[in-house]
Write a structure and sequence with these properties.
heterodimer; A: about 110 residues; mainly beta; 4-stranded antiparallel sheet; about 0% helix; B: about 110 residues; 6-stranded mixed sheet; 5-stranded antiparallel sheet
Amino acid sequence: DGGITQSPKYLFRKEGQNVTLSCEQNLNHDAMYWYRQDPGQGLRLIYYSQIVNDFQKGDIAEGYSVSREKKESFPLTVTSAQKNPTAFYLCASSKERTSRNEQYFGPGTRLTVT
Amino acid sequence: EDQVTQSPEALRLQEGESSSLNCSYTVSGLRGLFWYRQDPGKGPEFLFTLYSAGEEKEKERLKATLTKKESFLHITAPKPEDSATYLCAVTGFADSWGKLQFGAGTQVVVTP
């Protein structure tokens, strides 16, 4: 089955530690995205990548970093510089410009930092 | 800057009681408006894309419509399994390709 996988489902970290969230897709999609979801707020875009080895900052990129070394993978690192890292993180993907940008989401990773 | 406002924030329905959710948007040249369904603790599930005013799309008990300023998601004769948060998002021609602006969502609870 084609889809997007995120791991782990739950992640706990101590303040001051960097943590990397995994996102893999086998949909052969060109573009991938990372969003953050907080209670009562809409999804906010952290980073996105349209092609391998290229990515752009979204609206809330501070304290986060990404890489796109393979088409299938787009890991997100939450650094110690992120002031409020506790949130639900969602990865998504979409086809390139031949489509109308329908994004498909993974199951999410809930990160708790104490 | 694109803006999306969804109303109401929450909606409680009896099974079979039809209703509508609203998504008001501000965007410079609409490229697309998207509806998603999200169950608690899960990722959003894609429902519909609408591209131009007057367009309508249906899927089971759900029907999405679009005007130049807003979109409605009509839920006809809902069942308890329609309980979820429904998210609306837009992208405009002025946006970088791939950027969606999401609303905060409408939480729908359908009771038997």
